[in-house]
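stage 2 :: seqdesign
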């Protein structure tokens, strides 16, 4: 979470409470919104970023913000500002990390100038260890630079794992360009959009060049001129100690494979004492502004208006002021899938019946010329999640994504009709759920190039199945889609971690007490699908040919617009 690190007074339009947290001051603007200093109910200082309204209205930006939360949650390290809380279910969206006291490395070099060589080596080693911790979590920072490093009393902290920003903040994040910051983005990211751990090492080398010289690592000027020098020029290490300059140049080598890994960087630094014991570092870490720890201190400092006379202070409530509420969390119940659960079987163009625990299910083919899946036989002792027949659910009008989605279908080697998904279903369907995915015109499975016909039902679900039992189908493209072109971003392709386009929920519960299923429900992509954001359709589903590759199809048990659980996952190949 990027922060200006300047503690400023709240403005009249600022909230005084965000979720359960009391707001104490402004910390400036982050990439996608306003950042506040907050206090948790238990007294912990927080940095809380609230996404801007214009971002909240944009599906692509919202998906990127969700990824930022996911990334910060995944990386738990002594070298990062750890995630404390977040609200992603309804606007306003926000995330809260631990507040890290101390100045940014940018503020230090701007105020003090270049750091001594011994301090540089110690900082080099500490930041290399920080990167090593991040990479161990399977994450690349993608925007390491002095502004995103805080010198805390216990060592450096990496912040801002959200590469998505408005075009006015970072030009290199515009559509069709590489992520990052000019002068710190590796040449292979600029020219080929190849982001890897080696690109973070490049950024580390550039950062240390700036620390050692007090100058931009590839000079000043326009974004285009700086980017050109990164790709074709040399880093500025003039006047730097020979050993330190050699290590910096190794980190920014043009060939990513030639750059040292973090462990090798630490070894080459050869430090014999820690950074926090460095005689220069300690005073630097104390340069950060003193932030109030509670509301009375913030009021005394003039950062928050004083509450009305006679109103007692509580950490989570200030009457008569604007608030950012925490929406109620959805209460979907997920049944755990044990180690003995049956693996997903997927056959495109076939009716798929998941076998029971004894593996006795079987699948049948599509009736040629009719497009009606055959009634494959099978049995199961398990029934879909039961809620009885009391207080029947009202059919949701739509399904809207509430979080990032990690379901990705991939075909088996040598096949374009069978495959599997990486995630288990969130809710077991009982082994009798059948589905078919075929080309809407040829009624054949395999590779799709036009409209896709998707059919599904319970063959037999037992009398205990919840009635009604609404199912919505989600179809997601392999990559994030540029809303302006309806195709993946030209030079910045990222996997699609959204829910995709969804159909209206359909009741497929058995129609009588015998539990035998009814006819197949049928939907056609893209005709029957939409992208829902904040309860309203946004744009139109794209043709499958706009994003060739492996498309994912999710079958969702829908209990509400934002209360659902996956019951099966399949997919198809688009050409």
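stage 2 :: out
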């Amino acid at each position: 979470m990027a922060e200006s690190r300047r503690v400023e007074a709240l403005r009249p339009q600022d909230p005084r409470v965000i979720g359960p947290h009391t707001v104490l001051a402004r910390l400036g603007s982050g990439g996608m919104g306003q950042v506040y200093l907050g206090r948790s109910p238990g007294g912990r200082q927080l940095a809380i970023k609230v996404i801007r309204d214009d971002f909240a209205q944009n599906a692509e930006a919202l998906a990127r913000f969700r990824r930022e939360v996911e990334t910060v949650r995944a990386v738990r390290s002594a070298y990062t500002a750890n995630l404390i809380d977040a609200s992603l279910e309804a606007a306003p969206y926000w995330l809260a990390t631990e507040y890290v006291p101390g100045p940014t490395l940018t503020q230090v070099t701007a105020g003090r100038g270049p750091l001594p060589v011994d301090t540089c080596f110690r900082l080099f080693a500490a930041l290399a260890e920080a990167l090593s911790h991040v990479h161990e979590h399977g994450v690349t920072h993608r925007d390491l630079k002095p502004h995103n490093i805080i010198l805390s009393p216990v060592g450096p902290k990496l912040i801002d794992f959200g590469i998505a920003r408005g075009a006015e903040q970072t030009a290199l994040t515009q559509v069709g360009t590489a992520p990052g910051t000019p002068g710190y983005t590796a040449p292979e990211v600029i020219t080929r959009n190849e982001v890897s751990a080696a690109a973070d090492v490049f950024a580390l080398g550039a950062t240390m060049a700036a620390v050692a010289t007090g100058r931009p690592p590839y000079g000043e000027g326009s974004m285009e001129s700086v980017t050109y020098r990164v790709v074709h020029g040399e880093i500025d290490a003039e006047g730097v100690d020979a050993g330190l300059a050699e290590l910096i140049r190794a980190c920014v080598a043009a060939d990513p494979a030639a750059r040292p890994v973090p462990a090798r960087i630490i070894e080459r630094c050869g430090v014999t004492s820690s950074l926090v014991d460095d005689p220069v570092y300690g005073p630097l870490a104390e340069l950060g502004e003193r932030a109030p720890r509670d509301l009375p201190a913030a009021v005394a400092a003039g950062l928050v208006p004083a509450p009305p006379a006679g109103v007692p202070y509580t950490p989570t409530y200030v009457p008569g002021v604007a608030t950012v509420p925490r929406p109620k969390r959805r209460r979907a119940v997920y049944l755990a899938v044990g180690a003995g659960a049956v693996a997903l079987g997927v056959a495109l163009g076939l009716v798929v019946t998941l076998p029971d625990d004894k593996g006795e299910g079987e699948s049948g083919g599509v009736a040629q010329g009719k497009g009606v899946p055959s009634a494959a036989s099978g049995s199961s002792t398990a029934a879909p999640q039961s809620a009885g027949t009391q207080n029947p659910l009202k059919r949701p009008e739509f399904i809207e994504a509430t979080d990032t989605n990690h379901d990705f279908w991939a075909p088996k080697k040598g096949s374009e009709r069978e495959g599997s998904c990486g995630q288990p279903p969130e809710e077991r369907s009982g082994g009798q759920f059948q589905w078919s995915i075929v080309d809407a015109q040829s009624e054949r499975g395999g590779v799709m190039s036009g409209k896709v016909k998707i059919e599904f039902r319970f063959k037999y679900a037992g009398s205990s199945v919840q009635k009604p039992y609404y199912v919505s189908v989600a179809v997601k493209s392999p990559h994030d889609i540029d809303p302006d072109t309806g195709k993946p971003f030209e030079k910045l392709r990222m996997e699609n971690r959204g829910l995709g386009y969804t159909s209206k929920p359909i009741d497929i519960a058995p129609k009588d007490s015998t539990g035998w299923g009814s006819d197949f429900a049928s939907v056609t992509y893209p005709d029957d699908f939409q992208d829902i954001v904040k309860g309203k359709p946004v744009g139109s589903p794209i043709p499958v040919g706009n994003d060739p590759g492996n498309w994912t199809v999710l079958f969702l048990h829908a209990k509400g617009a934002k209360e659902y659980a996956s019951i099966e996952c399949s997919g198809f190949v688009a050409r």
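stage 3 :: structure notes
- The CA atoms of residues 49 and 479 lie 27 Å apart.
- Confidence is low (pLDDT under 50) at residues 164-177, 316-323, 325-391.
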